[in-house]
């Protein structure tokens, strides 16, 4: 591999802005972050703000609903039943 072409991979804090849920992980997005935050261990890390995380996504929170509008399954079966 070529040297000095890979982005820096380091620890970053991601914050869900809708629920104020934060988690510490490693990412290459640290270079694009202008903000920092003091984490529970006393160190400062780059902060990346996100709109959806596992704390607010409907699939993970149980808010996900499956709706069969106007019999789509029946319409499909009639169309392709030969």
From TrEMBL:
Keywords per UniProt: Ribonucleoprotein, Ribosomal protein
One cellular component (GO) term of this entry: ribosome
InterPro entries per the UniProt record, alphabetical: Ribosomal_bL28/bL31-like_sf (IPR034704), Ribosomal_bL31 (IPR002150), Ribosomal_bL31_B (IPR027493), Ribosomal_bL31_sf (IPR042105)
Statement: the UniProt record of this protein carries the keyword Cell division: no
Family: Belongs to the bacterial ribosomal protein bL31 family. Type A subfamily.
PANTHER family: 50S RIBOSOMAL PROTEIN L31, CHLOROPLASTIC, LARGE RIBOSOMAL SUBUNIT PROTEIN BL31A
Assembly information from the UniProt record: Part of the 50S ribosomal subunit.
Protein's name in the database: Large ribosomal subunit protein bL31B
Source organism of the structure: Luteimonas composti
